[in-house]
Amino acid sequence: MTDNLPLEGRGVVVTGGSRGIGAAVVRLAVEQGADVVFGYRHGEERARALAKELNDAHPGRRCVPLYADVADAGEAGRFATEALAALDRLDVLVNNAGVTRDTLFARMTAQQWNEVIDTNLGSMYNVTRPLVLPMAKQGRGAIVNLTSYSGVHGIPGQTAYSASKAGIAGFTKALAKEIGGRGVTVNAVAPGLIETDMTDAVPGDKAEYLKSLIPSRSFGSPEDVAHLVCYLASDRARYITGQVIEIAGGLVL
Ligand code: NDP
Q1: pTM exceeds cut of 0.70
Q2: Chosen CATH of 11-246 out of 1.10.3720.10, 1.10.490.10, 2.140.10.10, 3.40.50.720
Q3: Residue 7 CB: number of other CB atoms within 10 A?
């Protein structure tokens, strides 16, 4: 590891890397020296364009996009197997893929509830389960899970999402205790409001109200979150585990 390249030579897997926070993590990890395999579901074109851009800019490093629906255990298992085959070694897993289906709880359909839980929380099992043993056997690794301010504090209109993200926090703390002795850290990052397609869906007046609750009156950028994720993925954070770290610009809801 050098100061400029804290992820030099590391093998990194990122779910949901085709856009938003995941794409920013993929980009920064490659810039910091890693070989990266990342998943996409609907965004094949964007994923291939991102990989091409990064492979062209960083010859000698590998950036490989793979199709994966992380809500499906079989698909996620195939993704994990292909990711391991594409990398020389696995050091870091970033569980980033996630969805919202915001609506008042009284109006929420079972389908909306299940989509959110299966994607956000189910993926923690589906993707982490096949990848945790290779890291534990190696005696070193870092898992970084994307939870949310909503999972820590609860946001009205997001009962399913808050439940899924609170589940991720519990999963993170329990797994950290299980595998800390094998040299693997497990942490979660809890962003507040970050400018991506996910927050683009928030209606204008609500977005303005939310900004008024943030001291800087602005949403964060995907890069803000990527820097925290890549820090937690690096040896610099080797003594941090089982934590849920908010990155919310001082948001108080
Ligand atoms: P976006 O909506 O911008 O992107 C979501 C990503 O997840 C896409 O790459 C998408 O892939 C992927 N994805 C969604 N469903 C699946 C699936 N079933 N299988 C595989 N990939 C899937 O989200 P953000 O970048 O904003 O969010 C990233 C993470 O950060 C999420 O977990 C989110 O909950 C969390 N977060 C975001 C906040 C924000 O303000 N933006 C705040 C707090 C947490 P594709 O496009 O290829 O289908």
Answers
A1: yes
A2: 3.40.50.720
A3: 24
